[in-house]
Amino acid sequence: MNENYLKILNDLNHSQRQRIIESNRTRYTISAMSEKIKKDLVLVKFDVKEYLDRLKKYKVNRSPYQNYYDYDLELDFSIDTKNPESINNKIYDDRWYYYKAYHYQKLGLFLRKEVPPFKIRLSHLSQDIIYELNQFDLKNRRFVLKQAISRIFEDINFDLYHDSVSANLGVELVD
Questions:
Q1: Are residues 8 and 81 in the same domain?
Q2: pTM exceeding the 0.90 threshold for the entire prediction
């Protein structure tokens, strides 16, 4: 009986060590994945001229004093679009996800009761990242995506992100 007890104790110790190793490996994988996703998203650029043309199309039936960001159309009606250079300065650069994150913060969308999810297009991610994301369960996948977007928000305004945005930020993958 004493031998069985020792064997059980050894098995428990071994499985506990395996869980710790697995936990450390998972933490590293999640951190590395977040950074890979951020690097992919930073490379996504948008054409300012084409963007302004889309804005013009949607501004036809709207009050000129109405300012908002339409997350379904991913159009920002809060900036002066008569001056195209206003998009291409340090705040309005042509990196799509930085642009979206900046306007998410600027318009205070995280203060609303129903915060719109921050959308990531699946087509903006590499095939390797999509494959790796599929290896995670739903909880870890959401966490990894939120961490990647969090790093973009932190680059824009670290204090504002940690003071108020982080609690309400939700991330969603879309086609």
A1: no
A2: no
